[in-house]
Amino acid sequence: MRLLGTLNKFGKLLNYTLWRDFPKRSMACSRFEYVKSFELDDSILPNVWIVIRIDGKKFHKFSKAHDFEKPNDENALNVMNAAATAVMQEFRDIVLAYGQSDEYSFVFRKETAAFKRRAAKLLTYVTSLFSSSYVMQWPKWMQLPLAYAPCFDGRVVLYPSEQNLKDYLSWRQADVHVNNLYNTAFWKLVLEKGLTNQQAEAKLRGTFSADKNELLFQEFGINYNNLPAMYRKGTILLRKRVILGEKSRQAVVPLHEDLISSQFWKKHTEILGKYVPGTYNAPQTLPRLVEMQLNAKQLDDEAEEPRNLADTS
Fold first, then answer.
1. Which residues pair with 99 in a beta bridge?
2. Residue 294 Cα distances to 90, 140, 252, 288, 304, angstroms
3. What is the mean pLDDT of residues 170-195?
4. Where are the beta strands (DSSP E) in 101-220?
5. For residue 118, what is the DSSP state?
6. Structure confidence at residue 246 as a pLDDT band (50, 70, 90)
7. C-alpha to C-alpha distance for 257 and 247, rounded to whole angstroms
8. Which residues, 6 or more positions from 222, have their beta carbon under 8 angstroms from its beta carbon?
9. Could you give the CA distance from residue 81 to residue 75 in angstroms, rounded to a whole number?
10. In whole angstroms, what is the distance from residue 261 CA to residue 251 CA?
């Protein structure tokens, strides 16, 4: 009897403990949930073009540490292009990307529902994916190993109309022309004429585009318009169906065209209209960026074949 009494008291004590603790646990969970109310609603307005622009942080120091060729390093620019391609492969709602120097802009279609249009989610995902892809792509293009990891910041900008979007991209391409023309003249004076940085700056101070063009032609025999289009116009990335003989494969294609002209938008109607990738007639020598994508897809297809055979057997 004593044993039964002891067990009965223990059972009551256990029930009381459970009854006392369980409500407190559920209350504690809900009691702290109020902190969620401090989170701001950062949902982006509907029916606007979303542009995410990333910029390299302290890239002057970074390019110097990694011995970038002046005024333009083709391989370094292609690391940027390859990283941007990785972002476009992840986000099908990016209809166009535009890059120059150490920056890239990604244009999301107006109807995108990615991450429920939350600004912070989109910004952090694109920026972090670009940064990690830059590191992954580096050894495929560059000779020197990375001395330290690069860093990029980003911003979200919204454009309500097609004209606003066109003007934004025109602004970024005009920036390429101004900066590249100056840098080309500047580094020619420093590297070939032996001027110091301060002397080159003084010589170019107050000059106009025509003056710099004349300087390049008269002193260095360079027709600025004959320089590679990637340096003068930046890189446009579009998703296209690459025509290879009788076959076609989809890939992100680098173009170096005039964004400012109306002809560009008439030629690539899929950007502003119904988003169906246009065609890209592959040249005899494919851009390496496209070739790498097609080779990767070929390897994926070959890896899928044994699995498909195994599934059907």
1. 104, 235
2. 16, 16, 10, 10, 15
3. 97
4. 103-108, 152-159
5. B
6. confident
7. 26
8. 184, 188, 216
9. 10
10. 25
Q: Which of 240, 235, 234, 236 is nearest to 252 (CA)?
A: 240
Question: Distances in Å between the alpha carbon of 227 and those of 139, 216, 238, 270, 284?
Answer: 26, 11, 23, 29, 21
Backbone angles phi, psi at 111, to 5 degrees: -90, 5
CA distances from 124 to 29, 130, 209 (A): 29, 10, 38
List pLDDT tens digits, range 45-70. 999 999 999 999 999 999 999 999 99
Rg (CA), the chain: 28
- Tokens for 289, please give them: 């960026």
Contact 288, 78 (CB under 8 A): yes
Measured CA to CA, the distance from residue 218 to residue 147 in angstroms comes to 39
Q: List, in sequence order, every residue forming a beta bridge with 215; answer none if it has no partner.
A: none
Q: Is the pLDDT of residue 311 over 70?
A: no
Q: What is the mean pLDDT of the chain?
A: 90
pTM to 2 decimals?
A: 0.86
* Closest by Cα among 193, 188, 185, 233 to 213: 185
* Ranges of H-type helices in 66-142: 74-90, 119-141
pLDDT score for 273: 85
SS3 112: coil
Give the tens place of pLDDT for each residue, 125-181. 999 999 999 999 999 999 999 999 999 999 999 999 999 999 999 999 999 999 999
Which domains are present in the chain? 49-169 (3.30.70.3000)
Q: Which two tokens stand for residue 202?
A: 């003084």
Q: 141 with 78: CB under 8 angstroms?
A: yes
